[in-house]
Target: Malate dehydrogenase
Amino acid sequence: MARKKIALIGAGMIGGTLAHLAAQKELGDVVLFDIAEGIPEGKGLDIAESSPIDGYDSHLKGSQDYKDIAGADVCIVTAGVARKPGMSRDDLLGINLKVMKSVGEGIKTHAPNALVICITNPLDAMVWALQKFSGLPANKVVGMAGILDSARFRYFLAEEFNVSVESVTAFVLGGHGDTMVPLVRYSTVAGIPLPDLIEMGWTTQAKIDAIVDRTRKGGGEIVALLKTGSAYYAPAASAIQMAECYLKDKKLVVPCAAQLSGQYGLNDLYVGVPIVLGADGCERIVEVKLNKDEKAMFDSSVAAVHELMDACVKLDPSLG
Ligand code: APR
Model:
C-alpha cells in the first residue's frame, strides 16, 4: 500500500513542527508548501536528515508549486501571518483572508479529496472562508482550536491537582478566542467532574475561575513570552492528532471548529463543538445540553464569530 500524503500549506513555525511530527509518526510522505523560497525545502531536508537517527521512513519535499500537493490525503493550513504582541487575532483578518483565498483555490484544484485542517487565525472565520473558497464538502474542512484549548485547560488542571495530564479530561466549546467557553461541569479528573472536586476540597471555585481565565487567554500568554511569534508546539501536536485520527478512522470525540447545520440552533457558521472525527472527516456533531450560564457564554462566543464573518464579507463580498 502506498504511503499517505500530508500537505502542509505554510512552512513557518507551526508548519515545520507539523512536518517533524508527521514524519516521526510515519503518518505518510510530507510536502511543505510555502511562498517563501528555500524555507520549506530547508526544513524538509533538515527533518529528513534526522530520519536515520530517529529511524523513520518518510519522504519530505519543500515546494512553492501547488502541483506538488496533488492527491494529498490531508492538508494542514497554517499559511498566513501569525499574531505579534499587541495584535489581536482579529487584526490578522484582512491579511489572512486573502491567503485563504489562494490556499482554497490551490486545494480545490490539486487536492479536492483531502481532509483540510485549518489552523490559521482568526480560526473560526478563516476555516469558514477556506471551506467556501475551496468548495470542498463541509465535513472535510475542519478547524483546529478546541484540542489545543482543552489541552491547555487539562495541563493547568493537572498542575493544580498534581495528577497526570492523562487523568484529566476537559471540555471547551465556542470560538477560538477570549470568548471560548471552557465547560467546568463536563471537565473531570478520572471521571469526577470539577464541581465535585471543589466539594471534595481538592480545589476552590476561585482557583478554577483563574484556570478558566488563563485557558481563555492561553494563546496571548505564549505571544507575550515569545515576543516574536505565537505558539507552535501545542498547536502542531493538536493538528497532528486530528490528522492521525482521520487517517486511522479512530472516531475520537474531539472539540473542533465544524460547520453547523442546525445544531445548537445555528446554520452556516464554523464554531468549536465536540465532533466525531473519522474517515469521513466530521462524521457527527455532538450537541450537548447547556445550562443558562453556559448558553449565555456560548451565545456571546458565537456573536464574536459572526462579527468576524461579517467583517470578512465586507472585505470579500463573494463570501456573502
Ligand atoms: N501561501 C502559502 N504560505 C504563505 C502564504 C501564502 N499565501 N502567506 C504566508 N505564508 C507562509 C509564510 O511564508 C510563513 O512561512 O505562512 C507561514 C506562516 O508561518 P509563521 O509566520 O511562522 O506562523 P505560525 O507560527 O506557523 O502560525 C501560522 O497559525 O496559529 C495560527 O495565528 C497563527 O495564523 C497563524 C498561523
Observations:
- The chain has eleven helices and 14 strands.
- The CA atoms of residues 38 and 243 lie 26 Å apart.
